[in-house]
Design goal:
This protein is of the alpha+beta class. The chain has 2 domains: 121 residues, no CATH class; 42 residues, no CATH class. The chain is 42% helix and 13% strand. It contains 7 helices and 6 strands, in the order E-E-E-H-H-E-E-E-H-H-H-H-H. The protein has a 6-stranded antiparallel sheet with strand order 1-2-3-6-5-4. Strand 5 and strand 6 form a beta hairpin. Helix 4 packs across helix 5. It is elongated, with a radius of gyration of 25 Å. The N and C termini lie far apart (86 Å).
Length: 203
């Protein structure tokens, strides 16, 4: 079989995780796992049910995605373009799977990261609409958090994050949110009111 990322290279037999028969590209070091071999190997295991949020909490392991990660890949068995599933939030990489035969391609180092994250036994969940929707939501939240830090500075931003968490977990937290919204709804008017009717002196 030809390497999905470099057609000039022939894949060689390897074994992953002790007993999973796979194929590897000697040049790019990516791994091809056929659907039949993966299902056979998976049948002897009990997937741990790892969640998107638990993955995000583990960081990025200082992992640098392969330079081939962004390159489109053809299934070495079906010759069809494979679909991609995003993994990780901070430093994303993409696992690829054939939509026809369900074979899996991992670029260099990706299988090892899947093992570390506990995802290697249930790769199919990465391609579900629910998983990818949660991944997009986490990515959006991360960008929003970073923008808040850039606008407010790390110290004030952390105070905002802490308050948001307190209100989110408080049974009457929506009252706190409503109060803040009222304070910032008409800031100019509020500032004028404070100037006209200053609070009584404590001394």
């Amino acid at each position: 079989m030809e390497c999905p990322k470099d057609k000039t290279v022939t894949l060689v037999d390897v074994v992953l995780s002790g007993d999973l028969d796979a194929h590897e590209c000697p040049r790019c070091q990516g791994n091809w796992i056929s659907s039949a071999e993966y299902e056979r190997w998976q049948a002897d295991r009990r997937p741990s049910g790892v969640s998107v949020h638990s993955i995000a909490a583990q960081g990025d392991f200082n992992f640098r995605p392969s330079e081939f990660d962004s390159k489109a890949a053809l299934c070495p068995e079906c010759k069809r373009y494979m679909t991609r599933a995003r993994v990780m939030v901070d430093r994303p990489f993409y696992i690829e799977r054939c939509p026809n035969c369900n074979g899996i391609w991992c670029d260099r180092g990706e299988w090892e990261i899947l093992e570390a994250l506990g995802l290697h036994e249930s790769i199919e969940q990465l391609f579900s609409g629910d998983w990818q929707a949660q991944m997009r939501s986490l990515h959006h939240n991360q960008k929003e958090r970073q923008a808040t830090i850039e606008k407010l500075g790390s110290e004030v931003a952390q105070m905002v994050f802490d308050l948001a968490e307190v209100l989110e977990n408080h049974p009457n937290g929506e009252f706190g949110v409503a109060y803040l919204m009222r304070r910032f709804d008409r800031p100019q008017e509020a500032a004028g009111d404070r100037a006209t009717n200053p609070p009584p002196s404590l001394f």
